[in-house]
Amino acid sequence: MRNMGQSELAEQLGVTRQTIHAVENGKFVPSTLLAMKMAALLDTKVEELFELEESDWKQE
Amino acid sequence: MNNIAWLPRATRLPGILLALAGLALHIGLQIAWEEPSIFGDELINGGYEGWWNEIAMTFWLVGHFMLAFSRFKVEDEYTDRLRLLALYRMAIALTVLTFMVIWLTYDNFLSMSVYLLFGTIPLYNGILYFQWWRDLRTSNNRYEEQA
Q: Do A23 and B78 touch (CB under 8 A)?
C-alpha cells in the first residue's frame, strides 16, 4: 500500500480533506466509486481498506 | 459526475445578503407601519401601499434560491451532506425562533402561522430543490441512463 497524506489523497480524489478524515474515523461511509478510487490511488484493494463490523449488520 | 461549471460562481454571499436585506426591509416595514405608526397618525393607511413588501419578500425568496444553487455548496459527497444537515438545523432553529418572537410580540398563534408561511417556506423550498438537484447529479441516480 502506498503512503500518502490526507491532503494529497484528498487532492487526487477531488474531495475535501474533511471527507478523508471522516472516512478514516468511521464517521462517513463513502460511495462505492470513492472507495474504489481510494483503493486504486493507495495501490491496494477495497477489502483491505474497509471491513464489515458487527454493528454494520444491525438495522437502523 | 461533478460537472457543475454552469452554476454561478458566487451566489452564496450575495444570496445571504439579498435574503437578509429582504427580511430586514420586510420587518422594518411591518414595524414602521403598525398602528400607531412611528411616522405619525396622519400616515396610517396613507403612504404604505404594500408592494414594497412584495419586493422585500422577493429578495427573501430569490436570496434563498441563490443560496440553494450556490456552487460552493457542492464539494463532495460528505460535505454536501454536512451542509444539508446545517440547512435543516437552520430551518428548525428559524421555525422555533419565529414561533417565540411572534408569540412574545403578539400573544397569539394566528398571525404566527401567517408569518411562518412567509418565513420558512422559502427555506424549505431551497432545501428541497437542492436535494432534488443533488440527487439528480449523483452518478448512480441518472434516471435517463437506467431506462
A: yes
